[in-house]
Amino acid sequence: MSIKVVIQGAAGRMGKTLIRCIQEQKVTGLKLVGAIDLWDVPDIGTDAGIAAGTKEAGVKMSTDLAAAAPDADVIIDFTSHFGTSGNAERVAEWGTAWVIGTTGLSDEELAEIHKASEKVPVVMAGNMSLGINLLCNLVKEAAKALHAKGYDIEVIERHHNQKADSPSGTALMLGQAAADGAGLDLKKSQMDGRTGHPGARTKEEIGFHAVRGGDIVGDHTVLMAGTGEMIELSHRATSRETFAIGALNAGKWVVGQKPGLYNMKNVLGL
Ligand SMILES: NC(=O)C1=CN([C@@H]2O[C@H](COP(=O)(O)OP(=O)(O)OC[C@H]3O[C@@H](n4cnc5c(N)ncnc54)[C@H](OP(=O)(O)O)[C@@H]3O)[C@@H](O)[C@H]2O)C=CC1
Ligand SMILES: O=C(O)C1=N[C@H](C(=O)O)C[C@H](O)C1
């Protein structure tokens, strides 16, 4: 039997990619039962498959999450920090498994997700691709070997000109992996850009630099710079399908799990 999926943020870049991947069976065993977005979106009332540029889904884009979610097996959410956190209490009440790709949540908003995960299984990751989740392991390993030898660690991310949050969720995942390897506390080490006269770099800093332009899907580089050499560990996403396929696989994995907060490493077995 197919897993019943609601896409939250269905009219967005990721929402439409997810709907196309379901309809074109890029991940099998899933059925679209709800496609939800906000009232101001022109696609409301249109068949979700047609709106996403693929075959008809038999499901209209709607604003009514409460009508679709309780009977679904999983909600896949790529919306905004306030949209995701604002729904946490309702999702926990409905008991529907939840996959969250939304980035840019504050600590208070993340606390709402943690609370919901006491009642429902939740997979949350700033990047759902296999490549980035593997790269986090490589970054941790490299930082462990190099930071103690004096190498400086910086994260550079590049995204399209519509991206709302900075640093990206992926940059923070990579920064966290580097901090874990280097034995640093990211909350204290994070240095977002540099301007004015910040002075010489300290050894505890992990710098984050955000570039925004055009239609860049998502590029991330972790730079480890020593004396006389530097290493760059990079990932380049060339299609949003890599995130969508990861999220749909997370959707299949999370249904039937115990309540708790999981990540893509749990899903991928990394
Ligand atoms: N984890 C991962 O692998 C990835 C994560 N992302 C993240 O996913 C999020 C979405 O990205 P993207 O698709 O590019 O963004 P878009 O802005 O293209 O799409 C988001 C959609 O969600 C809608 N929306 C906002 N709030 C709500 C709500 N409360 N209920 C229903 N719909 C809502 C928006 O409507 P409106 O336009 O009216 O605001 C918009 O249509 C971002 O946080 C991004 O960083 C993106 C790619 C991969
Ligand atoms: O907003 C995006 O587009 C992306 N967001 C995620 C992030 O914040 O890292 C993942 C990917 O890089 C694309």
TrEMBL record:
Transmembrane segments: none annotated. Gene3D superfamilies: Dihydrodipicolinate Reductase, domain 2, NAD(P)-binding Rossmann-like Domain. Pathway: Amino-acid biosynthesis; L-lysine biosynthesis via DAP pathway; (S)-tetrahydrodipicolinate from L-aspartate: step 4/4. Keywords: Amino-acid biosynthesis, Cytoplasm, Diaminopimelate biosynthesis, Lysine biosynthesis, NAD, NADP, Oxidoreductase. InterPro entries: DapB_C (IPR022663), DapB_N (IPR000846), DapB_N_CS (IPR022664), DHDPR_bac (IPR023940), NAD(P)-bd_dom_sf (IPR036291). The active site is at H159, K163. (S)-2,3,4,5-tetrahydrodipicolinate binds at H160, G169, T170. Residues 131-268 form the Dihydrodipicolinate reductase C-terminal domain. NAD(+) binds at G9, A10, A11, G12, R13, M14, D40, G101, T102, T103, A125, G126, N127, M128. HAMAP family: DapB. Catalyzes the conversion of 4-hydroxy-tetrahydrodipicolinate (HTPA) to tetrahydrodipicolinate. This is 4-hydroxy-tetrahydrodipicolinate reductase. It comes from Tichowtungia aerotolerans. The gene is dapB.
